[in-house]
């Protein structure tokens, strides 16, 4: 899923959410966000000096960076690359992306056509044998399909170095949850977000 798709998904899944303040004592906060009539897509934000934890239906992550983490996450856009650097513990922020795999195959094919003589029918073979394969749902299957593909004298080369990972949807969803939750907190408390 793209970042835009996750943003739309988050907005839809949390449209009826309300904030419940379970604890609010300076830098020690525990906020719960959920729809009153639904047990789905709830999440909690918990802070203590220098840390923020998000936990809920769509994942759990802990971040550490500055004394007041609500100030760190304020703004209008998520920044997954920078925020991932602040994640603590054994947590997956990226995962295999079949969409990214398909993009890289298409880019390689387009470059091969543009810069070299490719055999007639290659495009159809790529679509059928690689992009049409049921094996590309997992990274190991995708890499195997690429390694085994041969059409006339054409092969994909150096694909072992392809980065087939992209932001995990749960990480992006939680990033949106943090930013939205922080905005809800400041709007309800009529406080200025710290600089």
Describe, in plain words, how this protein is organized in 3D:
- By secondary structure, the protein is α+β, with helices and mostly antiparallel strands.
- The protein folds into two domains: 3-93 and 168-189; 96-167, no CATH class.
- The protein has helices at residues 3-13, 69-72, 80-84, 98-115, 122-131, 139-148, 169-189, and strands spanning 18-25, 28-34, 43-48, 51-56, 59-64, 87-88, 94-96, 165-167.
- β2 (28-34) and β3 form a beta hairpin.
- α1 (3-13) packs across α7 (169-189).
- The longest helix has 21 residues, at 169-189.
- The radius of gyration is 22 Å and the shape is elongated.
- The chain starts with a helix and ends in a 6-residue tail after the last helix.
Instruction: Encode the helix/strand succession as letters.
Output: HEEEEEHHEEHHHEH
Number of helices: 7
% residues in beta strands: 15-25%
CA radius of gyration is 22 Å
Question: Brief description of this entry?
Answer:
The protein has 195 residues and is an alpha+beta fold. Helix content is 41%, strand content 21%. The strands form two sheets. A six-stranded antiparallel β-sheet has the order 1-2-3-4-5-6, covered by helices on one side.
